[in-house]
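Throughout our pipeline, every protein is held as a single compact record rather than as scattered files. Such a record has a labelled line for the sequence and another for the backbone structure tokens. The remainder of this section carries one protein's record, kept here as part of the documentation:
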Amino acid sequence: MNSEKAIEKIHEFERFGSILGLERMTRLLELLGNPQDDLKVIHVAGTNGKGSVCRYIYSMLEAGGYKTGIYISPFIEIFNERIELDGEYISDEDLAVYTDKVLKAAEMMTNAGKQSPTEFEVITAIAFLYFKEKECDYVVLEVGLGGTGDSTNVCKSPLITVITSISMDHMDRLGSTIEQIAAEKAGIIKDECPVVTSAKDIRALRIIETKANEHKSMFFETANIPVTIKEESLSGYRFDADIQGVMFEDLQISMTGRHQIENAVAAITAVNIMEERGDLNISREALYKGLKDARQPGRFEVLSDDSDCTVIIDGAHNADGARVMAEAVRNLCEDKKVLMVTGILEDKDVKSISLEFSRIASDFIVTEPDNPRKMAAEKLAKVFESYGAKCTVIPDFRKACKAAVELKDKFDVIIFAGSLYLVGKIRSILKHA
């Protein structure tokens, strides 16, 4: 099959829904020879920040000369983004080859009367098999949803576990309290596997530390690591950090928002610990280079920054993500006239997200993400108007994007934010215009 057919076949498994639990995934991987058991995995979970931490670690390992894979979700523009090796997305040819292998195993399961794997399980199995057969030195593995029952949690002995911020999201699946959500995320902790967390909420920290102690795993908090910011701009940050008694001076990152410093510190801490344990060896030069080179598309990404108007996209799709984005705008775009283009999924905490957005802009173009769970633009506009915002309703995201671009001479900053299903489409339009 070709790659288009492969992706079409993968999406057919969407009808089975998103079901947490490892029984199906375990059986599928058994039929494939358990490729995950031959991989050296860095496992990363969290509500926000996990994608950025994965990127930092991936980039540092790559700069260190290691053959490194990264598995992420969701993708921003094209499906192949989810599986990457040494800076290159999985090729269309390889995607077709490994999809065919996994689908044959899935067919064996259903023919034997077993429950079918879900779409995410199929994609995860493709990634494991691909990384195994490409002989990766390391794989940076981002949890899809939660932790305990996520299909990535079949990895028995990761080199290290990283858990980023914990906040309220996916409450229908993970629990209605911080403690319940933290417990789900902490479900990826394994016996005697070091745990690094950048979580700040004391309720979440207690849960994560308790779980680490139960597994006799070393526990490292990074939220209180001393950091001195020397420069900050829309191009990134330069800062010093004292990490585990080692001073790193003039570290540079190219991702924007002070929260990215916290993510970078968590990533450096994880790499440091792996180095101390003899799991890898990275020079200071490679660490610095990898950190600076790391990029996370769709997360406070500056698409243009000219003298007339700065254009930013950010997949701030939950309350905590909206808060840190708003903080970044206040810090970096002070006294600027801001236009926001936004669309949000209806099952999100729409009121909290909208409140954060309304704190940095009074002018909005309200549109709809390319997803059946979208909130109607008219309905969302009423939420923003309740916070005093001025809204123009344009349900078609393509027309909304065009209308915003035509207003560049009237605003200093245009921000496209909200659902990743919106941000990905907007990024494609703007990058390829």
Q: What stands out?
A: DSSP finds 15 helices and 17 strands in the chain. Residues 35 and 407 are 51 Å apart (CA to CA).
